[in-house]
Amino acid sequence: MFKKKTFRFTSILPVFLILIILAVALLIERNGISYQNKNSENTYLSTSNVKTKVESLSEVTVSNLVIYDSSNITSESAIDNFKQIFEDMKVGTTYIDISNESVPDFENFDTVVVLTPDLEPLGEMAITMMEWVETGGNVMFAMTLQKDDVVSIIEHKLGIIHSSYLYNTVSEISIKNNFMLGSGRIYKIDDPFESAWAVELEDNADVYLTTGDDKQVPLVWKYELGNGHVVVDNFGIYVKAMRGFYSASFSLLGNIGVYPVINSAAFTLDDFPSPVPTGDAKYITRDYQMTVSDFYTNIWWPNMVTLADKYGIKYTGVVIENYEDDTSGNTERQSDSSRFTYFGNMLLQMGGEIGYHGYNHQPLVLSDISYGDTFSYKTWSSNSAIKKSLDELIDFTENLFPTSEHSVYVPPSNVLSEESRNVLAKDFPNIKVIASNYFPEEFVYDQEFAVANDGMIESPRVSSGAMIDDYIKLTMVSELNLHYVSHHFIHPDDPLDVDRGAKQGWAKLYKKLSNQMAWLYKTAPSIRNMTESQMGGAIQRFSSITVDKKENDSSYIFSLGNFVDEAYFMVRFNEDKPGRVTGGSLEHLTGNLYLLHATSAKVSIAKK
Ligand SMILES: [Zn+2]
Fold first, then answer.
1. How many angstroms does the Cα of residue 502 sit away from the middle of ligand 1?
2. What CATH class is the domain 61-260?
3. Ligand 1 center from residue 268 Cα (angstroms)
4. Ligand 1 centre from 304 Cα, in Å?
5. Across residues 462-489, what is the average pLDDT?
6. How far, in Å, is the centroid of ligand 1 from the Cα of 161?
7. What are the residue boundaries of the structural domains of the chain, listed by start?
8. With CB atoms 3.0 to 4.6 Å apart as the test, which of 296, 363, 464, 552 could cross-link to 415 if both were Cys?
9. CA 549 from chain center: how many Å?
10. Ligand 1 center to 507 CA (angstroms)
11. Distance, CA of 548 to CA of 91 (rounded, Å)
12. Which tens digits make up the pLDDT trace of 237-267?
């Protein structure tokens, strides 16, 4: 009998053990979540460790010469965009305007970038430049060349065996030879025109980008000339949305190309949490036969949770307290906070973050700005009214979510005046990041990935919505290659807004969004999923870091400036395969392109 009892107890023991394990696992998971939230507060660097890109760039040895021509309209219109590219890549560069400056000795530089389509003003200097390349120099022609006498003399040194006076339309582009992240998809170009010079290349020219049609017109190629390298960009589009194609081309020069990246994917949910959005509920009724409020609870949010679970996305939701239009500075506490706590707490439990969007959805601008027909928003009566509204929003948010990080501000409709932006920086020290828009538009506060002089972190959203058009696909691939970044946002009220695809129905929109996220995580599987504050910390490190590259017979040595704890770089090995790494680790991305995670101020990579 005694024996029997023991037997019974041991048969229950495994079940009991499983229960204990489950309880412990649950506890660890919960602690893990709270640890993550706490940890995100520490992602920011202390201000003494942060430098602006301009400050850090001033510590870099000049190695690059950009030749442009302010009297040429194409060259003149592109120079600012290229200055930004080289600033972001931390390439020390001298800019020479050949319309009024003389070209310095090429021997002083490792690389030369020709940023004008017209080589006539260079005259014999173009020939001298190609002779310098033959002795081991590196040149990139960044603009589609205009066939003229000078170009005809040097074109065979660019790997061209035959050229005409004709230009081909670039309506689609295709990445070749695993040149960049994102190959295997055709990228369509909006408003295409005859922007590519019709050329035939020698067999030993390496072609990295072509038109997507049967002609396969070469759009980026590299040619070994004597001891040097020539890279030609022949697609003729110089917009912000194509920067990554230029950074990738530039890294083809020399034995090794290296530039800092952010390595971050963030996803903002604008107006979330907020009161139930207003808008045209017609398509919700059509597809779901339920109220807008029920649609968000039962369809939209579960879909967004599924998406986040699949890829580990950490949403940052930005709060709108009400949808009224009082801009006088008189505020009233939102009486119904149930939706805020319901959605907000679920978002936090998923490892997400809550930020600020507005007391209401009226952008922070004063009456000196007139929206005309563009917006029906009201302007604010004074700076003090703006401050009162922010005080209320911050207090409301703190009360609802007292334990989480709130340091990110997203301007309503991406509209924010310079003056109000400075109010945020000066009077609201808990706001460390402004996440507005990458691309300029009327009234829009457009940004670069940067730390401003006053310490504010500028963290532009690059893409938005669930319609995912050709332009979004192009900008996303460009930014993956330039900054190794994805920064997307959607509005929950997209399914209520015809301009943002409501008519297609949420099911279709959600599928398009899901497909694009599938593309992102297939193209950049290791990109770090981050909240907005974590991305802000990554931008501080990116802003500060510099890299000085040296090489000997057996290895490449990178000395990093302003290194704090970690930094990421795109590295392209043009000559050797990488071997053993000290001071960091390498991850293969595609072709000869790698992601370097530096964990020390000195990194060495053996040549294999
Ligand atoms: Zn909004």
1. 16
2. alpha beta
3. 10
4. 17
5. 97
6. 54
7. 61-260, 264-539, 545-607
8. 363
9. 25
10. 22
11. 10
12. 999 999 999 999 999 999 999 999 999 999 9
CATH topology of domain 264-539: TIM Barrel (3.20.20)
What the block records as the tokens of 524 is 């950049």
pLDDT digits (tens, 9 = 90+) for 270-322: 999 999 988 788 999 999 999 999 999 999 999 999 999 999 999 999 999 99
Residue in 255, 217, 253, 223 with CA at minimum distance from that of residue 236? 217
Please give the distance, rounded to the nearest whole angstrom, from the Cα atom of residue 90 to the centre of ligand 1.
34
Helix (H), strand (E), coil (C) string for 10-36: HHHHHHHHHHHHHHHHHHHHHHHHHHH
* Rounded CA separation 372/387 (Å): 25
The 10s digit of each residue's pLDDT in 105-156 is 999 999 999 999 999 999 999 999 999 999 999 999 999 999 999 999 999 9
SS3 content of the chain, % helix, strand, coil (to 5): 35, 25, 35
Give the strand pairing for 433-434 and 450-451: unpaired
Helix (H, G, I), strand (E, B) or coil at 385: helix
How many whole angstroms from 326 Cα to the centroid of ligand 1?
A: 16
Ligand 1 geometric centre to CA of 271 (Å): 5
Q: What is the pTM of this model?
A: 0.92
Q: How far is the CA of 15 from the centre of ligand 1 (A)?
A: 50
As given in the structure block, the two tokens for residue 84 are 């930004």
Beta-carbon contacts of residue 470 (< 8 Å; ≥ 6 apart): 187, 188, 189, 190
Mean pLDDT of the chain: 93
Instruction: Please tell me the distance between residue 429's alpha carbon and the centre of ligand 1 in angstroms.
Output: 22
Beta bridge partners of 68: 97, 115
